[in-house]
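FYI - complex with protoporphyrin IX containing FE, inputs then prediction.
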Amino acid sequence: MEAEAIVKFFHLVGMAWGVGGATIVTLLMIKSSKDAELAKAGGKIMSIISKLIWGGIILLGITGPILSSMEEPAEGLFRIKMIVVLVLVINGFLMSFGIKPKMAKLSPVDGKPTPEMLKVKKMAMISGMISLICWYTVVALAKAL
Ligand code: HEM
């Protein structure tokens, strides 16, 4: 296999981890908002998937620039792809280092969630949706290049 094909393979593995992880996280969030049992285990499962998504981003971040040095990417769409990737990474940082720790701290042991918890949950939903939209947009843009 030539070098470019190998790099592309790992680029696509990173994409699979990211897109798959973001899709599962969204499904889990929607389902666990209606299922208390699932919500209890949800935090632990999300943390595993979150690591998978970050692994995907790191793999894409390494293989992407190598691919760019191997073939000249089409100017216009590639620039838009990079902007959406940037939004995705910033949103990921906000989710992992802003929203997630807050959720863990506010998690009700028993009884009703506080209004602050509901607000953080809403932010997590919005951030999750942004992530999902960005992942699929990047894939669509990459395939249209
Ligand atoms: C969320 C992040 C990313 C996703 C989901 C993604 C996805 C993809 C996909 C699906 C392809 C098409 C592969 C093919 O058709 O064989 C591709 C190609 C490519 N990507 Fe990415 N990519 C991401 C980030 C990056 C980054 C950060 C860079 C560069 C800094 C980059 C550079 C490239 C290049 C140069 C190609 C080859 C163009 C082509 O063959 O069409 N990608 N990417």
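The chain has a mean pLDDT of 91. The longest helix spans residues 36-70.
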